[in-house]
């Protein structure tokens, strides 16, 4: 029993088209449970027998709420200037594209972590591809000036691809990483392993490490499977 309710200052109905303008807000619900919300300047929906596409424009903010009674709850938020979604003929979400100044945030609670883990990705364009079986995100592609942040670790690159099945985020395009333990530059590829909270450098790279506390001459931070180093 999932549905969407939309509020706006103006509403226009045409054949196969619905448009909401002026402080538009969409609430995503399953029964009486709120799954998320969307606020923006305008919403355009194209449809035939089913919804085909969804377009939100101007000061877009999409928020996914924590699902009640989930062991490791996750909340997500996306901000951008334009958000487009395409649906399959069966009515499932197929692809969503956020463009122009995209900021995506995720806050998740994990077992063994005293505080929530907050992850942020900033990019010019982010495309999410969804599984046709589960309707969940299967792959995410970020393009142009990607900045990935988790805790005190910051990784940058031209492009990034995240695969849900492996939990790996791979940055390319002269990626760099800055951490409390040191810095990686001139890398061919950097991979963030979300499941094991570690950074992997692949191919040639250059690294500079800080002397650890107590002067043990050992790097104590979880890093890396490195193929080549210079």
- Which overall shape is indicated by the principal axes computed on the Cα atoms? elongated
Number of H- or I-type helical stretches: 0
Rounded radius of gyration (Å): 20 Å
Give the uncertain stretches in residue-range form. 217-226
Find the count of extended strands (DSSP E, 2+ residues).
Answer: 16
Largest sheet: 16 strands, antiparallel
SSE string? EEEEEEEEEEEEEEEE
Gap between N and C termini: 57 Å
Task: State the helicity in percent bands.
Answer: under 10%
Mean pLDDT: 86
Structure description:
This protein is mostly beta strands and 230 residues long. The protein is built from no helices and 16 strands. It has a 16-stranded antiparallel sheet that branches.
Helix and strand layout, with pairings?
Elements: E1 2-7, E2 10-14, E3 17-30, E4 33-47, E5 51-64, E6 74-87, E7 93-108, E8 117-130, E9 137-150, E10 153-163, E11 168-172, E12 176-179, E13 182-185, E14 189-193, E15 198-202, E16 206-209
Antiparallel strand pairs: 1-3, 2-3, 3-4, 4-5, 5-6, 6-7, 7-8, 8-9, 9-10, 10-11, 10-12, 11-14, 12-13, 13-16, 14-15
Question: Keywords for this structure?
Answer:
230 residues, 16-stranded antiparallel beta sheet, 16 strands
């Amino acid at each position: 029993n999932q549905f969407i309710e939309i509020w706006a200052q103006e509403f226009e109905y045409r054949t196969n088209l619905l448009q909401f303008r002026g402080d538009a807000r969409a609430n995503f619900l399953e029964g009486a449970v709120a799954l998320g919300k969307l606020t923006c300047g305008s919403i355009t929906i194209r449809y035939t027998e089913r919804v085909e596409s969804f377009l939100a424009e101007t000061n877009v903010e999409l928020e996914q709420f924590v699902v009640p009674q989930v062991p490791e709850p996750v909340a997500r938020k996306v901000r951008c200037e334009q958000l487009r979604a395409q649906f399959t003929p069966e009515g499932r979400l197929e692809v969503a594209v956020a463009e122009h100044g995209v900021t995506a945030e995720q806050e998740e609670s994990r077992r063994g972590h005293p505080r929530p883990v907050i992850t942020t990705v900033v990019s010019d364009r982010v495309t999410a591809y969804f599984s046709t079986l589960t309707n969940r995100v299967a792959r995410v592609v970020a393009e142009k000036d990607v900045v990935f942040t988790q805790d005190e670790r910051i990784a940058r690159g031209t492009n990034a691809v995240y695969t849900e099945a492996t939990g790996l985020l791979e940055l390319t395009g002269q990626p760099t990483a800055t951490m409390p333990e040191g810095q990686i530059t001139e890398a061919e590829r950097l991979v963030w392993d979300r499941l094991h909270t570690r950074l992997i450098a692949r191919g040639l790279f250059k690294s500079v490490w800080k002397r650890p506390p107590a002067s043990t001459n050992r790097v104590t931070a979880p890093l890396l499977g490195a193929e080549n180093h210079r």
